[in-house]
Specification:
Layout lengths: L4 E2 L5 E2 L13 H31 L6 H61 L6 H40 L39
Antiparallel strand pairs: 1-2
Length: 209
């Protein structure tokens, strides 16, 4: 049995080094998404503050028009607040996933891959006449390392699925029916349209780094 395997990049790998691949996902790109959510949250908070401050600047305005404005303004303030909290929650969830991905990539590069490379070195150092039996001996260890990788991969995939569900909840304002008894009060659910605020795609099939 001869050992080296040549990748498309021209790098030469042993048999066992090919038993794991790079975990899918780009942590730097995901960190950029988190930063974008933080920026959007800050803008939503600023808009909420500005909208709220307008009411105090028109204290002399009275009558039905003022009442209608206050009603609309309170609903708008509440929507912006909900938008802000949703973005903040989404940013936190994306950050957790980003660190999860970094941790698994670090484990693969710092522990699993070196262990497989060591198996390749043992195989390469084996006399040609003994390589067949040595291969099957080392393969047992390689498969155990591969099982460890597969476990981490499934863990990462599960985290990505959980993140997707979390973002669907965090980045949506549910439509509710207007309650005339609570119009204009903090309890007023108001009548809204569902807002498609952000669509994040964290693809488990993208392996770019």
């Amino acid at each position: 049995i001869c050992s080296p395997f040549q990748s498309r990049k021209g790098e030469r790998h042993g048999w066992f080094s090919t038993y794991v691949s790079d975990p899918p996902g780009n942590a730097d790109q995901i960190a950029g998404i988190k930063n974008g959510l933080n920026t959007a949250a800050e803008k939503a908070a600023s808009a909420e503050t500005d909208l709220f401050s307008i009411r105090s600047s028109i204290s002399t305005w009275a009558g039905q028009a003022r009442y209608d404005y206050d009603e609309s303004s309170q609903r708008g303030t509440k929507r912006l607040y909900n938008f802000y909290t949703g973005l903040t929650s989404a940013s936190s969830d994306v950050d957790k996933y980003c660190w999860k991905l970094r941790s698994i990539k670090s484990y693969v590069d710092g522990t699993l891959r070196p262990a497989l490379e060591n198996l390749d070195k043992q195989f390469d150092a084996t006399p040609m006449a003994d390589r067949w039996s040595k291969f099957w001996e080392l393969r047992k260890q390689a498969l155990s390392i591969q099982d460890d990788y597969n476990s981490k991969y499934k863990e990462l995939k599960q985290s990505a699925e959980e993140l997707t569900q979390s973002l669907k909840g965090a980045l949506a304002i549910e439509p509710v029916a207007r309650d005339s008894e609570n119009v204009g009060t903090p309890q007023d659910p108001s009548r809204t349209e569902r807002l498609s605020l952000i669509k994040l795609r964290i693809s488990m099939t993208s392996g770019s780094n």
